[in-house]
Specification:
Strand order of the largest sheet: 2-1-5
Radius of gyration: 16 Å
Helix content: 10-25%
GO molecular function: ligase activity
Mean pLDDT: 87
Largest sheet: 3 strands, antiparallel
Strand content: 15-25%
Protein name: ATP-dependent DNA ligase
Oligomer: single chain
Low-confidence stretches: 106-111
Keywords: Ligase
Length: about 120
Amino acid sequence: MGRFIYDAAGNSVDIEDRTLAHLRIVVMNKLRRAESFMFDVEMGDGSGRRSFWINPSVPLQFHFYGSRPPRINRAWIEELMLVASGPNGLSIIPEPDEDQPAAGAVSPPAGPAAR
C-alpha cells in the first residue's frame, strides 16, 4: 500500500503501490504538458471521496511502501490518460488486460484491403 500526498499540509490518501505507480506516470505526463486536472479518489476507509486539484504549483509526493517497482501496464496508462483528459478528471479505473487496446484506440484495418 502506497500513499499519495497532496500539498505542504500533508493531505493524503492510501493507494495500492501498483495503482499508485500508474497514477504517478499519468500525473507526471499531464503536468509535463502543463495540464491541470481534477483527481477524484475514494477513501479506503469508507468515508467517501476526495477530489484534488492537480496543477504544477501544488507539491505532490508518491510514497511507495514496496521495495520493487511494479510492472507497468501500458494499456492502463493509456486509459487513465483518456479519463484524466475527460470532463470529470482522473479517477481510478479497473486495470485492463495488457493486450487490450485502450478504449479510445483505433484498431488497424483487417483483411486484404489493409495491404
